[in-house]
Write a structure and sequence with these properties.
Blueprint: H1 4-22, H2 28-39, H3 44-50, H4 60-96, H5 115-129, E1 133-134, E2 140-142, H6 143-146, E3 165-168, E4 171-173, H7 178-187, E5 192-201, E6 213-223, H8 228-243, E7 248-256, E8 259-268, E9 276-284, H9 286-291, E10 300-307, H10 308-316, H11 329-332
Parallel strand pairs: 1-5
Antiparallel strand pairs: 2-4, 3-4, 5-6, 6-10, 7-8, 8-9, 9-10
Helix pairs in contact: 1-4, 2-4, 5-10
This protein binds adenosine-5'-[phenylalaninyl-phosphate].
Length: 335
């Protein structure tokens, strides 16, 4: 048998223990361990409840009340401590994850079209307005379309003019866009009015005006009754549209196996000293028309191939072709 006084003493000692230690707990984990020590199934308070059986019948109700009070008080103490620690933990988390809104943000610059793309698209739009279509052909080309069909037979010395990268005996990286003329004419009947912009490759040593990779725009117009006068007029309109006033043009005789007569077009920017060769051109050679099944007695045509880099250099006063391919943002962002 246990006296009620004895139980009261034990209750108050558990109570003192609980109250004095609870304030020293600094983490939620420690608090939980502490709660189990008192309120767990085998905790100090549960153990006290087990003593009820040894209390005298008449005092059991009072004892039960005392124990229940203790239990309620303990629960309240834990809950309040839990709240304190919880909000402290939250404060700490907020402090550690704080964002400094005054720091400079991460800058995602918006890209824009490369100057060569801009120039190419502008050339396209000028000719589209004049009723030309835009055609495309492969950069990996065969010898037939690049040379033979263009009236440059194997072993002809003119092949040397196109310092060509060969992939194998019959396959090459096109050194000009002229093979696209052949591909278009093979598939369509006259009249043909196309331009073809595209990348070209040559075994040229890199210098201020030459690059092993560069871009050309090919133009081809085949129809009844075309003459060199039409070519000259078209060139003048185009150059005026693209460059505006003040640019000089010079045509001189040249030789291309696929045009007869052939000309070379040079240009000079306002106030510039040097002439720059910008395109080769001429009347399509009758042999080429025959190769694609056209009748040179019925249709005539003219063609040119211009260098896009050189056009851009003239227009913007760029003195070195290597700047286009150097990926230097100080250059690229100027356009
Ligand atoms: C040709 O390539 C002829 N296919 C052009 C042509 C087409 C003539 C149709 C007649 C009829 P040419 O080799 O001259 O011609 O090159 C034409 C232009 O390409 C040159 O005027 C120049 O502007 C440009 N070009 C040639 N090689 C390079 C290079 N390595 N780097 C930069 N531009 C180049």
């Amino acid at each position: 048998m246990i006296e009620l006084t004895e139980l009261r003493n034990r209750i108050s000692s558990v109570e003192d223990d609980l109250k004095s230690r609870v304030q020293t707990l600094n983490t939620l984990d420690a608090l939980e361990a502490f709660r189990i020590e008192f309120l767990g199934r085998k905790g100090k308070i549960s153990e006290l409840f087990k003593l009820l059986g040894q209390i005298e019948q008449g005092e059991r109700a009072t004892a039960g009340k005392l124990l229940n009070n203790l239990k309620q008080e303990a629960n309240a103490i834990f809950a309040s401590r839990q709240e304190d620690l919880g909000s402290a933990a939250l404060d700490q988390q907020i402090a550690s994850e704080r964002i400094d809104v005054t720091l400079p943000g991460v800058y995602h610059p918006l890209g824009h079209k490369h100057v060569l793309t801009q120039v190419q698209q502008e050339i396209e739009s000028i000719f589209l307005r004049m009723g030309f279509d835009v055609a495309a052909g492969p950069e990996i080309e065969d010898e037939y379309h690049n040379f033979e069909a263009l009236n440059i037979p194997a072993d002809h010395p003119a092949r040397d003019d196109w310092d060509t990268f060969y992939i194998d005996d019959k396959t090459l990286l096109r050194p000009h866009t002229s093979p696209v003329q052949i591909r278009v004419m093979e598939e369509t009947q006259p009249p043909v009015r196309i331009i073809c912009p595209g990348r070209c490759y040559r075994r040229d040593t890199q210098d201020a005006t030459h690059s092993p990779v560069f871009h050309q725009v090919e133009l081809l117009w085949v129809e009844e009754g075309l003459s060199l006068a039409n070519l000259k007029y078209l060139l003048e309109v185009f150059i005026h549209e693209f460059f505006g006033e003040g640019y000089e043009t010079r045509l001189s005789g040249d030789f291309f196996p696929f045009t007869e007569p052939s000309v070379q077009v040079h240009m000079r920017a306002p106030r510039a000293k040097d002439w720059l060769e910008i395109m080769g051109a001429g009347m399509v050679d009758p042999a080429v028309l025959t190769n694609v099944g056209y009748d040179p007695e019925v249709v005539t045509g003219f063609a040119f191939g211009l260098g896009i880099e050189r056009m851009a250099m003239l227009r913007y006063g760029i003195d070195d072709i290597r700047l286009f391919f150097g990926n230097d943002l100080r250059f690229i962002t100027q356009f």
